[in-house]
Model the fold of this input.
Amino acid sequence: MPHLSFEYSQGLGNHADLDALAVTMRDALIDTGHCPVGGIRVRGFRADVNAVGDDAAEYHFLDMILRLGQGRDNATRGEIADQLYAAVEAALRPQVKDIPFILSLEVQEIDSQFSRKSWSTIHAAIAEAKT
Done:
């Protein structure tokens, strides 16, 4: 159950293709081999209100929070984080260029005791599409 949310500074979309970036993020999670395709959700949110740094320049940020279901050890979570971060950085660097920017990622574990997801038809739809 990898759920990736990213929040980004207002105006970043003028420099980067954020729809394509969401696809890059999804593909990076798939490429780790540790994230079931049917469980992946990637969504982005623009921060309409923000104050970044000292406001002396056009500063931008993209902050990712990856929530993973329980069962992956620290090494695996670290590997997922490293691969995701590297893919996003590689996609954004040529677009953001020399604009002051920060990319961040935090990985959180979802406590299965408090997670509900009994209604899902996505896994079946993916399996059916492959046949």
